[in-house]
Amino acid sequence: MHSYWEDAAAAACKDELERRVYSSRLLGRDKTLVLHGGGNTSVKISEKNIFGEEEQLLYVKGSGWDLETIETGGFAPVQLQYLQRLAKLPSLSDPEMVNQLVTHQTRASAPVPSVEAILHAILPYPYVDHTHADAIVSITNTVDGEATIREIFGDTLVVIPYVMPGFDLARLCAERFAAESGSNTIGMVLLNHGIFSFGQSAKESYERMISLVGRAEAYLKQHGAWEFPPEEQLVPTGNDISRAMAALRANVSKVCGFPVIVSRHANDRTLSFARRPDIAVIAQQGPATPDHVIRTKRLPMLGRDVDTYAEQYRAYFDALEPQAGERKSMLDPAPRVVLDAELGLCAIGKTAKDADIVADIYDHTMDIILRATALGGYQALPAKDIFDVEYWDLEQAKLRKGGKAPQFAGEVALVTGAASGIGKACVESLLARGAAVIALDLDASVVSMKQGLNFLGIQCDLTSEEQFTNALDQSVERFGGLDMLVLNAGIFPGGCRIEALNTGEWQKVMHINLDANLMLMRECHPFLKLAPRGGRVVVIGSKNVPAPGPGAAAYSASKAGLNQLARVAALEWGADNIRINSLHPNAVFDTGLWTEDVLAARAKHYGLSVQEYKTNNVLKTEVTSHDVAELMAEMCGPLFAKTTGAWLPVDGGNDRVI
Predict the structure, then answer these.
(1) Which of 134, 211, 540, 555 is the most exposed place for a label (fewest CB within 10 A)?
(2) What is the H or E stretch that residue 600 is in?
(3) Is residue 574 a contact partner of residue 529, using CB atoms and an 8 Å limit?
(4) At how many degrees (to 10) do helices 516-528 and 465-479 cross?
(5) pLDDT, position 393
(6) In three state form, how does the secondary structure of 52-118 look?
(7) What's the alpha-carbon Rg for the chain, to the nearest Å?
(8) Where are the domains of the chain?
(9) Residue 494 pLDDT > 80, yes or no?
(10) pLDDT tens-place string over residues 59-99
(11) Is residue 636 within a helix (H) or strand (E), and if so which, with residue range?
(12) Are 475 and 438 in contact (CB under 8 A)?
């Protein structure tokens, strides 16, 4: 543990709420304390209400906010005395508790207060911090966890047995804190859950958290339960691993009922863990903290037998659902974490972001399991307690907040020639519809063209089979498979009549525009065949296929050959549930090829203004890269679900094509 507190930065905060934001972000930046929305903080502030009366408010972290990036608007102001009165009730249902929290906020636009707001309210300190510190959870998730915590901290902490978050926990904490706290008390541990610190100032509460967790870390180090350097492992790679990944993704998606992203994390650390001889024991106890279950499920899958995992999950649900207070509808029974001796750690999510969150959580879980094991044995909460959180309405609401999933959520698209023009527009259209996108281009700028977890840019020479297969393996490792392929890359050589066309130029155009695409289609076929909703290929062709022009023999013939290849593929791949269609754009001028000078010169050649030249078609409309990309995306969607082997012009109407 290290304190990141800076007095100068704190002094720049204009009030207590800004200092609350400042120290909350310090906690949030340390992933060993807070992961992906976990933990919460609060501050008690006196403010004047609309009548000019002083009113005590609890500003507590709002649901859906992350401590690392929280702002003042992320804290919900709730009437403090009312919360303290609620804590004295004999019982309060979860829906009614949330109703009381929301209806006693003083700002209508504030987020829903944390479900632990009442707990924060009953602690008699201005500042309260709560984290799920790895070191604390490592100790409490052992057979003698409570005794060890008391040994380490003595009377500086009040120890609370595990109770599900919400009203019952707040009430128990109020009782225990009143009975057990003393002059030395600076914090509170919730077994199998996390730790609280508190203080008179933001600095005091924050640095107490750092100090308390630091003591837990020191204890683990003293008992040889801190660092576990992995042994060097052979990391399997190559086409066989990629196909295994795609098959795993297909099976998981089938059980889920929707496409998923499967991200592989294979290194010395994950493979050492997955290959442990006791993995079937240590990894099958349960999550490090109950709230992880909504992201990771209760248990990871060992190996790749998805059907057996699903059967075991259904048995878990059938055994525990009758014990619930009200009827529950079973969630999908597919795993979210896979531990496999060849694949290492595979994280599964509806999006690339979701999969990365799962990976982060389990990365910390591995540390916790190893430390607890070394300390005497990892012991998670019973399945019933985990089930109650997994099917807790308040936790499920967090997952439902995202609303309806985008059209291509969980699906993966690969676009060639993606650094500019139509290819770049295709990337943008697919990302906008929720797809994870791999962008390939010879131009190195493709690597940093877009930011975000759902984008992977790879510099690649598509005439090199080795470079492409490496890029494909890298793509499958990142996202798990392939659903859509957009063949856009190509070259348009300068005009040359047949009698002057040399063999080398002809072969160069054929090699890039036709031969390379044959190789791409062949190598992508096994992955498209495993696409959960069926594979889709869109060929970006050219007006020159149906209506070639003089001086473009190599280009026109290569594009016509590619279109014929696509038609044959439509015939051959239909049985594999892969559909392939072609778009034939013309006069798309917002590409790198068409500079302002070139446009002006061509317009002058035809006796037209630049705008007249751009709209020189039947509909007198301008065709943009975005227009082509949007039609490409629709071809990959349900609107074209029953169309294959087709070609469609996107040219504003060309009289020769018509």
Answers:
(1) 211
(2) helix 596-605
(3) no
(4) 30
(5) 80
(6) CCEEEEEEEEECCCCCCCCCHHHEEEEEHHHHHHHCCCCCCCHHHHHHHHHHCECCCCCCCECCCHH
(7) 30
(8) 7-222, 239-394, 412-588+623-650, 593-622
(9) no
(10) 999 988 999 999 999 999 999 999 999 999 999 998 899 99
(11) helix 625-636
(12) yes
| Tokens 């065709």, residue located | 623
Residue 14 has pLDDT above 80, yes or no: yes
Contacts for 79-87 with beta carbons within 8 Å, 24 or more apart?
79/55, 79/104, 79/105, 79/106, 80/44, 80/56, 80/121, 81/56, 83/58, 83/117, 83/118, 83/121, 83/122, 84/121, 84/122, 86/118, 86/121, 86/167, 87/118, 87/121, 87/122, 87/170, 87/171, 87/174
More confident residue, 495 or 137: 137
The SS3 call for residue 637 is coil
Cβ neighbours, 10 Å, residue 315? 11
pLDDT bracket for residue 402 (50, 70, 90): low
Six-digit token string for 524: 């992508």
* Whole-number percent of the chain with pLDDT over 90: 91
Structure tokens at 243: 């196909």
Output the CA–CA distances (angstroms, integers) from residue 128 to 18, 111, 209, 327, 331, in the order listed: 15, 19, 10, 36, 35
Report the 10 Å Cβ neighbour count for 308: 11
**Exposed, middle or buried: residue 31 (CB in 10 Å: 0-12, 13-18, 19+)?**
middle
Strands 127-131 and 40-48, bridge-based pairing: antiparallel
The CA-atom distances, in angstroms, between 84 and each of 118, 185, 394 are 7, 20, 21
CA distances for 151 relative to 57, 139, 144, 156, 369, angstroms:
36, 11, 11, 11, 21
Amino acid 398: pLDDT:
60
Superfamily of domain 412-588+623-650: NAD(P)-binding Rossmann-like Domain (3.40.50.720)
- 7-222, what's its fold? L-fuculose-1-phosphate Aldolase (3.40.225)
> Is residue 48 a contact partner of residue 54, using CB atoms and an 8 Å limit?
yes
Assess contact for 337 and 356: CB atoms under 8 A.
Answer: no
Q: Which two tokens stand for residue 632?
A: 């490409």
Task: Report the Cα–Cα distance between both ends of the chain, in Å, rounded.
Answer: 71
Same fold, 7-222 and 412-588+623-650: no
**Which residue type does 53 have?**
E
* CA 95 – CA 404 distance, rounded (Å): 23
Amino acid at 447: V
Say if residues 197 and 208 touch (Cβ distance below 8 Å): yes
Q: Is the pLDDT of residue 395 over 80?
A: no
- Coil, helix or strand for 404? coil
